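Please, structure for the following, as tokens.
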Amino acid sequence: MFRDPTLSPPTSSKRLFVIGLTCLILLAGCGRALPELDDSDLGGRAGTILLFDGSSGRLVRSVGLSLAREREFQAGEFIRYVTLPVAIEKRITNPDGSFVCRDGTPEPTTEHGTITLRQALELPCRSVFREIQRKIPWSEMIGHLGSFGFGSPTELGGPLEKPGTIPDRLSGEQAWELWSCVDLRVTPLQMGAYFARLHRGDLPLRPETLQTVGDLTRGESAGEYRDHGFAYAWAASYLEGPSGPLTAFFFLLGHEDDTGREIATQLLRTWAGRSGCSLHQGDNGTHAES
């Protein structure tokens, strides 16, 4: 049978199936694109936004990366999220127990009364975590901080990334109040990367510890640091995004009167809603601080 050589060769049914399947895969990939970020998501404030893949921990999107990797800050109340897994791992505290919060100014009070560990984490209650921290020798805490990614670059920010600082020893008030330890310094990139590891259970701890800590920290977490007018605030959340699970970390720099955990949390929520991301509902639901 004669065939015109200028015509395209016949295409088999198998080949058509492969082409069709490839097109469907490409279309599905486009529908699962990563959420976008830009400076406007910071609400006109100085800061950084970091987005981590929820499965691998890779940094997949960022705004203000230079600030995140090159600026070091006093850890402040962020340290409670590091103290928590160490205390549970060492069985220093009972995650299902009750605690008396004795915070208050100018004198300690029992204003918050008897609270749960999750409430102590969210308030946050300094006195509860102060007592927990006192039971962890600093020599042991140094090892945990190092294994959690502090005191060295995360390798997610390139060659300009700062390592942060872990002091060899604590003295004076710092020996029992890590909140006030001026020598314990971290970068926003380290903070965000730590939450990404926390959310996906990628810390060198017992499986049961990882499960308990995950239940307490998935959802929303937030904190702030204030000192003589200067302030920073941060919010972290484990999200279900169009492309899969994500950890979002917002970090704001400013002044005491215009920078707080509530603002960081609201900016994160606004971006998540606009980007089609939903707050992960773990066993604990959500626990945004206010």
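The chain has one domain: 37-279. Residues 220 and 237 are 5 Å apart (CA to CA).
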